[in-house]
Specification:
five-stranded mixed beta sheet, 116 residues, alpha+beta, globular, 4 helices
Length: 116
Amino acid sequence: MTTSLDISEIVREAALDKKAEDITEIDVAGRTILADTFVVITGRSKIQTRSIADSISEKIQAAGLRVSRVEGYADGNWILIDLGQVVVHVFTPEQRAFYNIERLWALASERQAQTS
């Protein structure tokens, strides 16, 4: 059985093959039904974000796994790749700074801890 750690490692390697920057994993297990892990990646341009997304999809499929859905590919500013247990967000620097999902999930963790 493939774990979210195995999938995240494939994603990391595929992204680094395309010179991705600032790869961050966010553990969201138990905080959302969407996934166990979010992987957040920066590409310097729309062309690079698409290249990173293509590399991830190709390596996931080569590993015998399934890409459930890809959103935002045409625009290229924020590409979301749904891999089931892992959801990948590939951002341009401007979009990553604007949405700052690392901060949002950190705040959600703090609020959850305060109410527990």
